[in-house]
Amino acid sequence: MIGIIGGTGVAPVLKRGKEVVINTRYGKARVLIDREDDVVLLFRHGLNHSIPPHRINYRANIYALKMIGVERILAINSVGSLKEHIKPGTFFLPQDFMEFTKSRVSTYYDGEDGKVVHIDLSEPYCPEVLGILREILDRRGYSYSEGVYICTEGPRFETKAEIRFYKTLGDVVGMTGYPEVVLAKELGLCYVSLCTVTNYAAGISKDRLT
């Protein structure tokens, strides 16, 4: 089963779907399930797009997908470009990430079960699905780049000074890619992100961020 995580804009992906509330030990998650096509759709910001990035219950979301049998996750993320050659209107495939969040619970291994676990994140994104995405994008002639995803706390946009710093470390900046990728890895799920580049980050161009 495939899980798709995105905003309300990805709703048309499902031709049909049953809304289900999944109760997990970390809280509730609301999903749309299409059993016929074996697809689950989860809106990370809620059905009304009312949950800001720093308040999303990432642990409940990923755990709920695991509970209902999802094995592969395609996350749709909006990002700002840190590099002039990564243009708005194109796609971006993260190969690695760096995070600068502050208040997010980012692990299932928090010591409650008496265990200390260190997972390997040398390859955070699923090579299998990354390869499939590359083939699809190439076949359809879509422009895309690959590189390092920088995750910030949000919900505010970054300052120009912050962007100058992030530009030395990564290629795009967003607010929702972490800790999804880590939580999925901890649960043994194949996770990949397909980012849509919506704008240049602050100071990269003269356009005002909206």
Averaged pLDDT, please?
Answer: 91
- The assigned structural class equals alpha/beta
Task: Provide the CATH superfamily.
Answer: Nucleoside phosphorylase domain
Low-confidence stretches: none
CATH class: Alpha Beta
End-to-end separation: 36 Å
Please name the CATH topology: Rossmann fold
Number of domains: 1
Q: What is the correct CATH architecture?
A: 3-Layer(aba) Sandwich
Helix share bin: 10-25%
Shape: globular
Largest sheet: 5 strands, mixed, barrel
H and E string: EEEEHEEHEHEHE
Report the β-strand fraction as a percent range: 25-35%
Strand order of the largest sheet: 5-8-7-6-9
Number of helices: 4
Q: How many β-strands, per DSSP?
A: 9
Radius of gyration: 17 Å
Family: Belongs to the PNP/MTAP phosphorylase family.
Enzyme class: transferase
GO biological process, one term: L-methionine salvage from methylthioadenosine
GO molecular function: S-methyl-5-thioadenosine phosphorylase activity
Walkthrough of the structure:
With 210 residues, this protein is an alpha/beta fold. The chain has one domain: Nucleoside phosphorylase domain (Rossmann fold, 3-Layer(aba) Sandwich). 19% of the residues lie in helices and 32% in strands. It contains four helices and nine strands; from the N terminus they run ββββαββαβαβαβ. A five-stranded mixed beta barrel has the order 5-8-7-6-9. A hairpin with a 4-residue loop joins strand 3 and strand 4. The termini are far apart. The mean pLDDT is 91. Keywords: Glycosyltransferase, Transferase.
